[in-house]
Amino acid sequence: MSDDHSQSNDSPSPKKGFFTLILNQLFHGEPKNRGDLVELIRDSEQNDLIDPDTRDMLEGVMDIAEQRVRDIMIPRSQMVTLKRNQTLEECLDVIIDSAHSRFPVISEDKDHIEGILMAKDLLPFMRADSEPFSIDKVLRTAVVVPESKRVDRMLKEFRSQRYHMAIVIDEFGGVSGLVTIEDILELIVGEIEDEYDDEDDLDIRQLSRHMYTVRALAPIEDFNEAFGTHFSDDEVDTIGGLVMQA
């Protein structure tokens, strides 16, 4: 009976990860560092063992272990929020304009987050016989994380705790932005868009923490709001016009 539970010397160690075992079979040796691993993955693509999308995903998985939440968060200036005293109609206007599904709810300003509102929670109040609306009735607890938190640990927490949005704070406790599970997944699989996303509507797109693309037709007012600048729109209305004046 003891033979049924014994392992031969040729059996792979259960402590070795599945990915490592596969690499050993393919390349007859373990990568010694991240550079070796990246090289093996790219060699695999060149040898038609994996396709480019798979390579991008594998490299994305490795990248999230080296990034912090601050690197991928939606910055404070671009957070779309609701106020705790807003009416149902006012909330719906914000939801429709932004097309988001989750919103931080604030009291005085963005440093005072009262909770999270999910757009779907407003549906019962749209019936003719519904009870009077109050945001407090649908307010959910906001999860707060430091901006120094590692992205891979953030993803693990999102999955284990089953929530999709977290408020990001700096070392002084001030709100610096927010992060969603979609932000992290996009690092791995690329940008996630649905049938309602309109590429042409995005005048300002964040590529990384310190890199953006801005369309020439982006209104100066929107640019100022996104980046906290104070360019005048007295003579020109767009960023392209402002650049041409420089």
From TrEMBL:
Presence of keyword Zinc: no
GO terms under cellular component: plasma membrane
SMART domains noted in UniProt: CBS (SM00116)
A molecular function GO annotation: flavin adenine dinucleotide binding
PROSITE patterns with a match to the protein in the record: CBS
InterPro entries: CBS_dom, CBS_dom_sf, CorC_N, FAD-bd_PCMH-like_sf, FAD-bd_PCMH_sub2, Ion_transp-like_CBS, Transptr-assoc_dom
Positions of the CBS domain: 73-133, 138-195
Keywords: CBS domain, Cobalt, Magnesium, Repeat, Transport
Segment forming the signal sequence: none
Keyword Protein biosynthesis: no
Family: Belongs to the UPF0053 family.
Record PANTHER family: HEMOLYSIN-RELATED, MAGNESIUM AND COBALT EFFLUX PROTEIN CORC
Role summary: Plays a role in the transport of magnesium and cobalt ions.
Protein name stated in the entry: Magnesium and cobalt efflux protein CorC
Organism the protein comes from: Serratia marcescens
Gene that specifies this protein: corC
